[in-house]
Amino acid sequence: MEDAIKRTDDTGFDPVATTRTVLRAAATGSLGTLSEGGDPFTSLVTTATTSAGEPVMLLSDLAVHTANLKRDARASLLLVGAGGEGGDPLAGARITVIGTVEKDEDDASARRFLARHREARGYAAFADFGFYRLRVERAHLVAGFGRIETISAADILTDVPAALSDGEAGAVAHMNEDHADAIALYATVLLRRPAGDWRMTGLDPDGIDLTGPDGVARLDFEAPVSDLTGLRERLADLARTARNRS
Hints:
By secondary structure, the protein is of the alpha+beta class.
């Protein structure tokens, strides 16, 4: 099937890949909801994603944004990628993800969120807190002059084979327990992030998610994997590449 938008331009810019990377790598975002009177209301939230790429948030029933969502589930979520650190805050790519928010009872969503935001473990079990998922309809990408695209959910989200989703928790635990050295190489050599306590928080067909001393990081694969065997081979290849470069 032909993609809804052109994957790359003459410079090699890929709007779909950029959108997916910003979505996966963001740890915080600005959540836009509608107040009772219809006024827009924006608040800061912490975010993770499902393995397919849908944003997940841990929200309190006492918060204004949660009350707004219970009246009207429509919402948007602004996520900002790296690139504005040099002085211009508009230099980095950013996406506005649009859709509806619903309660998320999936244990995998909670696991992925709490692995990324370990500080939230202290209050995630409180009675007034719950996990919520943004069901993506589309996203609006701004990645620089002339690099503006509206991208459908079909392009944004990743189909995750059951063989990979069922084995994700075990694979992540195994990597953290037995291959911390490889994870450190992924972060410091391949992604050029500072040394420290790096851990894997999630994986999907397109890459792995890490967290460490300066926040979260995303390492995208050059090609998708579809099962645990392919994942094991890809991670081993990346570790060899990192060792050869270090």
